[in-house]
Amino acid sequence: MKKLLYVLPMAALLTIASCSQGSKDKSESKEPESASSIPAASVEESSKEQEPSSSVEESSKEQESSSADGDRYLIKEPTTIELVSNSSYTDDLDSFIASFKKIEPNVTVINTKESTSYDGLKDKIVDGLAANNYADLAVLYPDAIGTLMDYGVVRQLDPYMTNETYGWSDDDLDDIIPAYLQEGVKYTLPGTYSLPFSKSTEAMFYNKCILGLDLSKIDSSINGGNPISEEYINNLTWDELFDHLAPALVSYNNTLDDERKILRDNATYTKAVFGYDSDDNLFITLAEQYGYGYTEVDPVTGEGKLLFNNDGMKGLMKKFKAAYDNGYFFTKGSSKDGKYTNFSFTASSALFTVGSTGGLKYQVAANLDTGVARIPQAPAGAGHKNSLISQGPSICLLDHKDDNRALAAWLFYKHMTNEMNSLKWALDTGYSPIRYSNMETNDYLDVASEEGKELYSLDMVKARVFQYVADEKVASSLYTSPVFKGSDVARTACGSLVTTLLMKDKGTLTDEIVNTEFDKAENTIKTKM
């Protein structure tokens, strides 16, 4: 595994020099031959030029040169493939198509944007299977890809990744974040069935007005009696948050007059110290951090197994319910009208919110100095480990029983995710780079530098997010959950479980109710497995 050489001290990020970025352009692509029919030497063949002695010789040379050019292309005949996504970054995709056309001129790539959810995108593909009316490359979440695998329409990618002629080099494989590659093998069939594209993780966005606060008169244990620091915030545990920091912040806020309050009442949005945008991510991440178990795939049968219905997870839900009742914590599911918690955060009705790094633009507001830190972790203990969810859509290659077409699709994916294009995608979209080398470039470090950025601007928040995702503690903590029949239902049911328990009337959450709701979630999932 490549070492994380891209991580620089924060001071270095603040002074890094800027570097100009490449320009965009536009393009298309077409149909290939069987992978087995392409000689390994064809990519490197070249023709020698000789001094023409006559017009006949000149004509002959032009024909030879044209033939030699054709030998360079892996796709020999006109081939059309389609990329389908719901991405709004169509200009970037079109620029990748244009530059790919120069490499494989026989390939025409159609860029199709569907205005629907990822599940809606998956459903459109399923609807088109009978008529062979579906794309060659689809940008989807793993659960959706797992559903398509049930129809036998997803190609295994290992033969393309490891091919000596057109596969990834050892340097390529060493360059891609391991957790992103591991996600592609967490299906019920052996092998790789998806590869990374628009990846992200969760971050804790916080109001930096709390930095420097001395809460020692309220709770002398907070940060060892010292004022709140970035290091303290970046190393919070759930116990520290709920047992010390949140109560102290509420007490401190109560001493301030209305104009100076750091946590404000709002008629529209929920008021609490800490918000978490995704109820299901919260449950799954807690199961991973504390080692209590969520789901797994039986290595023999390939079937999913449910692990979450245990005393450890039940105890955590009771702890989070108590925090909710005290005004320390809430989620999207338990907020007013089910609003994302970033609305409370940007309205100063919450001091912290956990959301996707890919959605950093939603954490910006006038006069809000948004900090970015790691989400709270389980306290040190047996079976506990630092964990951050790896999320964001990947790409799968859909099978049309046409090896030439499949090869063209692989080559285009490989082109979109080479060092230059994967960097461009990250810089333009805000998604996490999928390669270590992306984060070592001057372009990336320039965006990640706070120098010259306006304090409350989107550029400043983006700089801080780019610093965050380039932190070794983040990349080394990423995890993914296995995909199996019913795994999408498991995610939804566990998210609903969190919402249901948090919203029970205060003081009514008995062990009997907790057991009943856990059993109900488990039974719901089992009917779909």
- Regarding quaternary structure, what we see is single chain
Low-confidence segments, ≥5 residues, pLDDT <50?
A: 1-67
Determine the fraction of residues in helical runs and give it as a percent range: 25-40%
- How would you classify the helix and strand content by structural class? alpha/beta
**What's the total number of strands?**
14
Distance between the termini: 35 Å
Query: What is the radius of gyration computed over CA atoms, rounded to a whole number of angstroms?
Result: 26 Å
Sheet of most strands? 7 strands, mixed
Overall geometric form: globular
> Number of helical segments?
20
The proportion of residues in beta strands is 5-15%
Tell me, rounded to a whole number, the average pLDDT.
89
Write the layout of secondary structure elements.
Blueprint: H1 10-15, H2 55-72, E1 79-85, H3 90-103, E2 107-113, H4 118-128, E3 137-140, H5 142-150, H6 158-161, H7 170-175, H8 178-183, E4 195-196, E5 200-207, H9 230-233, H10 238-254, E6 274-276, H11 279-290, E7 295-297, E8 304-306, H12 311-325, E9 329-331, H13 341-346, E10 352-356, E11 370-373, E12 388-391, E13 394-397, H14 403-416, H15 419-429, H16 442-448, H17 458-469, H18 472-475, E14 478-479, H19 487-502, H20 511-526
Parallel strand pairs: 1-2, 1-3, 6-9, 6-10, 12-14
Antiparallel strand pairs: 3-13, 4-13, 5-10, 5-11, 5-12, 7-8
